[in-house]
Amino acid sequence: MNKEDFNEGLIGFLNASPTPFHATKNMSMMFENAGFKRLIEKEKWELQEGQKYYVTRNDSSVIAFTYPKKEKNYVMVGAHTDSPNLKLKPNPIIKEHGVVKFGVEPYGGLLLNPWFDRDLSLAGKVSYLDANDEIQETLIDVKKSIATIPSLAIHLDEMANKERTVNKQTDISPVLTTDDDFEFDEFIKWQLSKLDILDVKALYASELSFYDTQDASFVGLHDDFIASARLDNLLSCYVGMLSICSVEADKPMLFIASDHEEVGSDSSSGAGGSFLENTLKRMFSDYDEYMNMIRTSILISADNAHAIHPNYPSKHDKEHAPKINAGVVIKINANQRYASNSTTISRFMNSASLLDEKLQNFVTRSDMGCGSTIGPITATRLGIETIDVGLPTLGMHSIRELCGRDDAHSLYKILVAFKN
Q: Does the keyword ATP-binding apply (predicted)?
């Protein structure tokens, strides 16, 4: 796939995936179109060699894999479906001072200031009781800009440009309407009715998140960049999804996109949970065969990397400061916050060099903290050789992030051609 088609598809995927639920649904549809057969965890599996399969958990994590007849030394690609956002509280309605507001809770380590004065919509999963007294679940996406978080005028905050702080409880409630008769349940039922779901006896629970309605787009004098919400880490999800859809069924490859990475991965559908291990043990029921597969495979953990910020270069180690559109980043940390080691780095470098693809190294400043990824978590749980890589990004964890138009396509080419 050429770079132009690749990036157009990326923008479409970003716009269609406002939550992990939507991202997982979109990837599942892509797998179906590429000939992958769906598996259900609670059912018995009858795997056939030479076929391709996918399975989801919690509607927010997905695994896709080939099942070759001969080789079993897998190239695994790991990413995560979640991004920092504002999640709706269970009892969200606040009516005061002439407006109706929504109570929200920050999810993950998000930059709060960029959420002010943006056009916001709402999406996620809703559970309800239908006319047959059965619990059903469905995804909704309001799409329309229904709320905003207005900034406090500078006349009322003389320190705004000096030391602006944000209180997570009182300062970030999105303003919805001046209609004091607004009822949340009726609003949700209205959204369900637009999906032709009319038999709602009772609304139960929901997992809904606000998102910026501005579409992903090319930015820059020569369209140098791609700007979008949720680049961390839908960018890697798209690359991993497209990579496994581009290889033949006889190449041992697996892709996993897990939820809840931004809050530590400790959940049934997170990388700290059992999803991947359960799947692999069903693929390889013989323990010796399973261990042989683990010790001959490699996991490529793909999560965005910090590009050097041109206005804050002192925040980076100048010898390990990746640039946008200068190649995929290998992430290294002596304290094992990243799982890369000399063995896995060498294998990745070799595969990239065969394609003439550029690589960069990232090491955080020794006097600054370092984020982590699913890489060390999965390596610890499975005992699989792992490398952490990423695509250079600016504005990470903001409501709108920035990446290069070249780097994701470069990683895609490396993954498709990777020789294990």
A: no
pLDDT, average across residues 247-271: 96
Cα dist from 130 to 138, 183, 191, 197, 356, whole Å: 12, 20, 15, 9, 56
Rounded CA gap, 368 and 389, in Å? Answer: 20
Q: What is the DSSP letter of 262?
A: G
β strands within 221-353, DSSP E: 225-228, 253-258, 298-302, 305-306, 328-331
Per-residue model confidence (pLDDT) at position 420: 74
- Cβ atoms 29, 11 nearer than 8 A: no
Q: Name the residue among 332, 350, 344 with its Cα closest to residue 390.
A: 332
- 374, 383, 391, 377: which is closest to 301 by C-alpha? 374
Burial 157-167 (b: 16+ CB within 10 A, else e): eeeeeeeeeee
Q: Are 138 and 125 in contact (CB under 8 A)?
A: yes
- Rounded to the nearest 5 percent, the helix, strand and coil shares of the chain are 30, 30, 45
Type of residue found at 36: F
pLDDT at 92: 96
pLDDT in tens, 28-70: 999 999 999 999 999 999 999 999 999 999 999 999 999 998 7
How far is the C-alpha of 180 from the C-alpha of 314, rounded, in Å? 50
Domains and CATH numbers, the chain: 3-83+229-417 (3.40.630.10), 85-212 (2.30.250.10)
DSSP E strands, 312-414: 328-331, 359-362, 385-390, 392-394, 401-404
What are the tens digits of pLDDT across the range 121-167?
999 999 999 999 999 999 999 999 999 999 999 999 888 888 888 99
Q: Closest Cα to residue 9, out of 21, 28, 22, 27?
A: 27
